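ugh ok fine here u go
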Amino acid sequence: MEDAALDERLEEDSYPVTELPLCQLRLMDDKRYPWLLLIPRRRGVSEIFDLDEADQQQLWREASRIGQALKEFLGADKLNVASLGNVVPQLHVHLVIRRESDETWPGPVWGQGESRRYNLDELAAMRDRVLALVEGLDLKAD
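structure:
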């Protein structure tokens, strides 16, 4: 199956980390929160149910294993997992690390305050941390 083109808004707001068995993993450009995106590489998919059953299972495998590892590694209070798609219809799943000390706790991160972009050194450091974490996970189907 041919990979889907990445929506330009996702491309503008995030940076590539790596390719997973199903998804492209990207880092959102807002250093207020460690925030990852999982974007299935399938054409014409806007809802989770648009994926076949094997891809649905793979999406949740990737989200669960990466989310758990990220939460433990960064000592988060909560991991928010969301798939909204109201602005960007291409299916993408947000994994957002939350802490009771963050500026929007306990409210949502969307539309709150001004995002703070990573500088190039911060971006490289965070990308490397996430990549090292993900490379240690078994994300392939059982």
